[in-house]
Amino acid sequence: MDSKLLQRRLGQEIDRDLLAATQRLSPEQRLDAFLTHSRLMMELYQAGQRARESRQPKSP
Q1: Is residue 52 helix, strand or coil?
Q2: Cα dihedral 44, 49, 50, 55 sign
Q3: What SS3 state is found at 6?
Q4: Is 22:14 a contact under the CB 8 Å cutoff?
Q5: What is the pLDDT of residues 13-45, one digit of tens each?
Q6: How many whole angstroms from its chain centre is CA 21?
Q7: What pLDDT score was predicted for residue 45?
Q8: Alpha-carbon distance 17 to 42, whole Å?
Q9: Which end of the chain is more exposed for a tag (fewer CB within 10 A), N or C?
């Protein structure tokens, strides 16, 4: 079987499993997951900002 085809099938299976798991969450759990995701994305963004600032030369 072609490697790309196998990867695509595996990806589709993971997508179905993730969708099913998401649908089993209560509204409170979905909100908590969304808030956690948003917090982590903000932390990642801020870390990137700090990394970019540390690479830029300082102005006198």
Answers
A1: helix
A2: positive
A3: helix
A4: no
A5: 988 988 898 889 999 999 999 999 999 999 999
A6: 16
A7: 98
A8: 27
A9: C
If you write DSSP's letter for every residue of 11-47 in order, what string do you get?
Answer: HHHHHHHHHHHHHTS-HHHHHHHHHHHHHHHHHHHHH
Kindly list the distances between the CA atom of residue 49 and the CA atoms of 6, 42, 54, 60, in Å, as whole numbers in the listed order.
Answer: 37, 10, 9, 21
The answer to whether 17 and 10 have CB atoms below 8 angstroms apart is no
Written as six digits, the tokens of 10 are 């595996």
Tokens of 43: 């932390």
DSSP 57: P
Tokens encoding 7: 């990867």
Amino acid at 55: R
